[in-house]
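Quick check before the chapter quiz. The format below is the same one you will see on the exam, so make sure you can read both the input and the output lines.
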Amino acid sequence: MSQKAKIISVKHSGAPIYRGEHQGTDSFITSPDKIMNWLCDGYRTRFNQHRSQRKKYDKNKNLVPIGDNVIDITDKQARIDYSYLSAMPAMILQAPEKKENTEWFSAVKRRKTLRDKGVKNPGKMPRFKSRKKEDQYFTCWYNNGANAKYHKTGKNTGVIIITGKNPKGKKRTPKDKSKWKIIIRIKTYKDIQPYTSITVNWSKKNIVFTNLPQSCKENATQSNHAVGIDRGGVIPLATSDNDTLIPDKKIIEKYESKKKYYQKEMGKARSRASKIDKTLGNKNHEHMYKVMRGYNYQENKKKANKYSRKIAAYKYAWLQEITTLLVRKYGVIILEDLKVKNMTRKGGKRKKGMNRSFLTASPSMIADLLEYKVLLNGKRLVYVPAYYTSQRCNECGYTSKDNRESQSIFHCQDCSYKENADINAAKNILELYEYILEGTDLSAYDENHMNDGGEIIRPTIPRGMREEFFKPSIKADLDDIIDPVKVISNTSSN
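Here is the expected output.
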């Protein structure tokens, strides 16, 4: 995910910045333009140093380095060997390595794909960055606030602060301090979401905020622990460990109330304009639009849309945080294999409200976020069939729609077991996973049920196992009780 902002101005604060030795004397800069060019040059230099280690085939089919001078040194050593890098912020010096690696192997993959398709000329491998031929830019890691900090200053404005420090003994005057700041004032187009790095394009005067997938540090105590998760409407996530995960209602209600207020004002403007239009015999629609503008229809529409985006942005950030925590905590995550499209079919006013609530919880997005994160971190995601997990008692296995006392309460009619309905469903999901795959080596499971990474599994439940796991409330054919079509329509009650 990325967001773009426009650079308005750049300001320097603090100590004059040490730019290295120039003609045998120490050079210092305070000009914002020179500072930005220096940061771009330093980033490009370190990028090309990493690129110089790459190899290519020569005429004799031997692998040789791209660069004539191969430079394989650490950031610390680069500061020592190249004086103009000595005051460069650490978060800028560290960024080129990952950028260069990603660019190189993306090109390798692209060329291989094109060759497999029979393309004779799949394109050249990337070479060094040129100051003359390419834009001046640099990337700076945010690293949990270590640098490139963003501060909102107005409705559509903010500042990015990049900090640095001159090396010891490098001051223009004895009174000068060593620390310095670069304050980049920007114009934003929408609220800035959480980011992992910024890329400053000095040639085009813009900044791109980027949120890259981060590795989830494994919890050693629970790395192999499995958890069942039920995705619902009122409660987006419930786990088999008796946890219910819900976003902050106060924040959402705050934005919702403001959105509804502006939507109400839009309705008033539309109603007034419609009445005037009717008096004119519905012939002068242009006049109607003028009346709507007079009642600030468009202004209210923009404000309503603004708070809709705020709600969506908050929910997305919350889902990112929660899914990261789940992947960090558990080694195996089990979900129901829901068909969201079939679950949200039309079915009256009550069904309409349930559909809205269910889709607002974003069950598909939850699954998508978990999928790429488990693959990134070497964990497992398992989808189990959605067979009456919301109607089955986790204590005795008795399965009946009457067990659902309400949307939130599960009350078994056989053994009187009471539990939160979503938590009961999550426990059933975990138990179903253990039941299907008991004693099964997941790594050797049927490849037809795996993706390319071999980490996302969709097992099936054999007919005989269904009858044993789900104790039906009435005597009937099992296919009548566990009908996939009925299951899909009933899973909305999860």
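If your answer matched, good. Residues 218-222, 347-351, 443-454, 474-494 have pLDDT under 50 and may be disordered.
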